[in-house]
Amino acid sequence: MQMYKINKALDDNYMNHQMVKEAFPGEGKTLWRRRGSHLLVLTECSLANSLGDSDMIETLGEVVSNLERNLADKVPFTIRLNACKAQGHKRFCLPANEVEGWALNKLSGLGFEICSARVVNEGRVVSMRQGKKNTHGSVVVDGVLKVVDRDALIRSLTSGIGHAKSYGFGLLDVFRC
What pTM was estimated for this model as a whole? Predict the structure, then answer.
């Protein structure tokens, strides 16, 4: 999987999703997250030919082999999760008092233990898709993780964690680029 940096982040997560989808067409896995004023993208898909020479996108390199070689026992991390629970066929945002416990539980058993963490409930994030509101409960967790199973951690990195990955949730960011 390749890591890219898109030097432009839009306010709406669905619009960011569309931009990532156009930049990396194909059926392979693609995860992204907002990092400040840009997007970090991890993907199996090739960069669209029309954007190959663009200043808007930087290629940061191949990820998995670099991780396998360079992943330390303790690693700083950040992740944005969609704090929700299913009721029937719908998902609902969690109440604020349940978010921290839910987030820490969601990150257990994925190839790492959390040494320290800060959980920030960003509340509801609304995106517009074809004129309809999509609402997600956004929680950001950052801290330090301890690697306990490298293969499971790499699966978590390359598959993402949780729901709403196409809206910028679920990319475990251990990348210092």
Answer: 0.85
